[in-house]
Amino acid sequence: MNIDELYQTIILDHYREKHHTGLREPYDVQVHHVNPSCGDELTLRVSLAGDVIKDVSYEGEGCSISQASTSVMTDLVIGETVRHSMGLYDDFLEMMQSKGEITPDEDRFEDAIAFAGVSKFPARVKCALLSWSALRDAVGQASDKES
Amino acid sequence: MLDVEKVRKDFPILGRTAGEYPLVYLDSANTSQKPQVVIDAIAEHYGQHNANVARAMHMLGAEATEAFEGARSGLAQFIGAERSEEVVFTKNASEALNLAANTLGASLKPGDEVVISVMEHHSNIVPWQLVCERTGATLRWFDITDEGRLDLEGAEREHLINERTKIVSLTSVSNVLGTHNPITDIARQAHEVGAAMVVDASQSVPHRVTDVSTLGADMVCFTGHKMCGPTGIGVLWGRHDLLEKLPPFLGGGEMIEVVEMARSTFAPPPYRFEAGTPPIAQAVGLGAAVDYLSGIGMAAIAQHEETMTAYALDKLTSIDGLVILGPTEAVDRGSAISFNLADVHPHDVMQVLDSRGIAIRGGHHCARPLHRRLGHQSSTRASSYLYTTTSEIDALADALVFTRNYFAPRFNQG
Ligand SMILES: Cc1ncc(COP(=O)(O)O)c(C=O)c1O
Q1: In which domain of life is the source organism classified (chain A) (predicted)?
Q2: Which of A9, B53, B158, B201 is packed most tightly, with the most Cβ within 10 A?
C-alpha cells in the first residue's frame, strides 16, 4: 500500500495547520464524540442562526486523518444551510464507504476530495468520519432545540 | 542461549512478506504468533480425536477427554501448580479475571475495599468496578511514579492496603510500560490484612518462568493466545482450598453435581468453574504451546527478550523526538515498549510502519487510565518475543525516523 495515497498533501496541510480550531462562544449545542478503539476524542460546538450554520468550533485529539477531516469539514459547512451540510454529510459518508470507487465532485467537496484515498484504507474510514458524525449529532440537537 | 534463526523456522507466518518488505512482527504483547507444532496439534485433534469431553463415553470421547485433561496437567506443571485441579480453563484472561471478581467478590460488603493499580489493563479494572458497584465495596488503586513503576511509598502513606482491604488485584507486568511489579511483596501485605491476592499474569507467563508455588498469589490469570497458543482459551489458577470455598461463576452443563428444578449442587473445582463445553481443541493447542516453550526453555526466552529489550531501548532512546513511556532501562522490565513520536499520532505511526511491513500497535492498548495518568492521549507500542531479531528492531528504528520526517518536515532541515 502506498501511503502517499492516504496522506495526500491536502490532508497533511490541514493537519499541520487546522482551520477554525478552539471552542468558541456562543453556541447552541456541544457534543463529545470518541473513537474507543483508538482513543481519538472530539468536542464540537455548533451555533445556528435560523437554518444556517453560523459557527462550528472544536477541540480534539486524534490522528492526522481525523484532525484534517475536522478542519476540512468546518471549511465546508460554516456559513452554509443545515440542509446543504447534511446533504454533504450523506455524500461524504457514501464516498468513505465506497472503497475508492466514488470519484468526488471537486466543486462540491473542495479539499474533502482528498479523503477519497482514505476510503481505500478501511481501518481509517472511522477516523475521517468522526467529525462529520459529531457535526450531524450537534446540528440535529440544535435544530430540535430551535423548533 | 536461544538460537533465534532456528526458532523462527518454527513459525510459518514469519516467512511472509508485505510487498517488497519482509514481515516484521512487533505486536506480540497483543497476540503472539503460533509455531507449526501448535497448528498441527489442533489439526490433529480435529482430524483424529474430536469428541466432546467428559460426557461422551465412546472411544473418541475418551481420547478427547484424555487430551483435554493432559493439557490441564501440562499447564499445571508449566506454572508450578501443586495439582492440576487448580487449573481452570476459561475463554481468555478477561473471562478469568471476571471469574475472580465474581467469585471472590461475591461476599464483598459496603465498607470493604478492593485495590488495583492505575497501570491495569481494562480487563483488570472493569470487572472490579462492576463488582464494587453491585456490592457497595470501594475500589482503590496504586498510583505510579514518574518512571512508571508502582508508587509503593505513596501507597504506604495512604494506607492503601489496610484492614478493610479484601482483594488486591495487580498486573505482574504492565502491557504498556513493561514494568515488573513486586507481586510477592504486595501479596505478603495483602495476606497480612487477610485480603486475597489476584494477579493478572497475561504479560508475564508468556515471557519468563512462572512458579505459583512461590509467587504468593491466591489466583493467577493469563491468556493462551499471547503464549504461542490459540485464541479462545485462558487460564485461571487458584489455590485449591480457596477454589473449593468459592461459589460458581457461570451456570450450565458439567459444572453441577445434582440438578433439581428448584436448586442445584455444584461440582468440585475446576469443573465448578467450567460451565458448558469447554475450549477443547484450544486446550490441546495451548498444551502443545507450553510443551514448545518448555522445550526452548523459559529462562532462555527471558534472556533473549532482555537482550532484545535492551537493544531496542538503546535504539529508540537515540531517536530525536521520541519519548518512551515507562522505564528506559532494561531492568525489571518486560519487552513491551510504548512511546510517542513528536507531532505524529500513534495511528499515523502504525500506518506508515504497516506500509513497510512492520506490525506494531497504536492506541491506548486497553489502558486509558494509565495514558491519562501519564498525560498521553495514546501511544505506539512495539513488543518482542522469542522470535524477535535485532535486525527487526533496526527496521523499526529506521522506519520511525522515516515516519517522523514524513509528518514533521522540521526534522529534515539541518
Ligand atoms: C495485562 C493484560 N491483561 C489482560 C489482557 C486481556 O487478555 P484477553 O484479551 O486475552 O482476555 C491483556 C491482553 O490484551 C493484557 O495485556
Answers
A1: Bacteria
A2: B201
- On whether the CB atoms of residues A131 and A103 are closer than 8 A, the answer is no
Q: Where are the domains positioned within chain B?
A: 4-30+297-412, 38-294
Q: Is the peptide bond before B230 cis (omega within 30 degrees of 0)?
A: no
Could you tell me whether strands B138-142 and A52-61 are parallel, antiparallel, or unpaired per DSSP bridges? unpaired
Calculate how far, in angstroms, residue A44's C-alpha sits from the geometric centre of ligand 1.
Answer: 33
> Closest partner residue to A64 among B345, B354, B363, by Cβ?
B345
> Rounded mean pLDDT of B17-38?
97
Strand partners, B205: none
Instruction: Report how far ligand 1's centroid is from the alpha carbon of B120 (Å).
Output: 10
pTM value?
0.93
Domain segments of chain A: what residues?
A: 3-146
Given a contact cutoff of 8 angstroms between Cβ atoms, the answer to whether B17 and B25 are in contact is: no
- May I ask the CATH architecture of the domain A3-146? Alpha-Beta Complex (3.90)
Of residues B146 and B68, the one with the higher pLDDT is B68
CA of B94 to the centre of ligand 1 (A): 6
Q: What is the architecture of the domain spanning B4-30+297-412?
A: Alpha-Beta Complex (3.90)
CATH assignment, B38-294: 3.40.640.10
Sequence-distant (6+) residues with CB within 8 A of B12 are B36, B39
Angle (deg, nearest 10), helices B280-296 and B59-78? 40
A contact residues 43-72, partner B, Cβ 8 Å cutoff: 61-65, 67
What is the percent of chain B with per-residue pLDDT over 70, rounded to a whole number?
Answer: 99
Q: Do B377 and A2 make contact, defined as CB atoms within 8 angstroms?
A: no
Beta bridge partners of B363: B379
Judge contact between B26 and B335, C-beta under 8 A: no
> Which among B132, B221, B228, B366 is annotated as catalytic?
B366
- Distance between CA B366 and CA B150 in Å, rounded? 18
Q: Which of A4, A17, A64 is the mutation pick for testing B, counting most B CBs within 10 A?
A: A64
Tell me the pLDDT tens digit for each residue of A40-78: 899 999 999 999 999 999 999 999 999 999 999 999 999
At A1 the pLDDT is: 65
